[in-house]
Amino acid sequence: MDIVIPEIAKENAITFGIFLTAALIGVAIKIVRGLIDFYEEVLIKRYFKRLNSLKEHVDVDSTTSKYLNSLKEYEVFRLASGIRVAPEKAKVLMDIYLLGVASNVELKRVSPYLKLENTKVLVDVKWIDKLQFTYSFIAAIFLMIAGMMIGFPYFVIGGGAESTTGLFIMVIFVMVAAIVGRDFRTYRILKCVSERLTELDMLINPDEKILWNFGRWSNRE
Asked: Is the pTM of this model over 0.85?
């Protein structure tokens, strides 16, 4: 079965191929990050078990025992949240969760962009982060459009098998776009968290721009 490719894609094959390759780079990065996160989680669990075993060999009222208890409490936070930060920041993140500002999953997504300044929070978004948010949005939109361009002709003009193939192509591209667009969704979460922290007077820099202005998707919306 020949692949149906729209004329616009044929006429701009090189450009289309470059954009498709660039968009798919995000998928590879997400897969690698997922493997790293899984490996770190395994190490954390092993470390927590080691702390439990050490606790049995020290006096209950000793300084070493208090030290081990502090480490265990912090490791419980890391296991429960999946977030690896300094103990002081961990306490602030738990406060944010308890105040209903963000869920546990949302905390993990925005934690890298939240810094601790005394008792308040600083949103720290560098230009590379803004570039990543923008790339995520553009790449996700491109992949969804590409999926429609490639799969829709099969779905509309083909027979039973061709229609199924077209639907499968569109679904695959949408799924890949969802993976690539994860960073842009993180931006949306960070924006909501920043607004809520501003209302609670917990944010040092409420005027911080976390995304370049482009249309209604900018942080001025």
From this structure: no
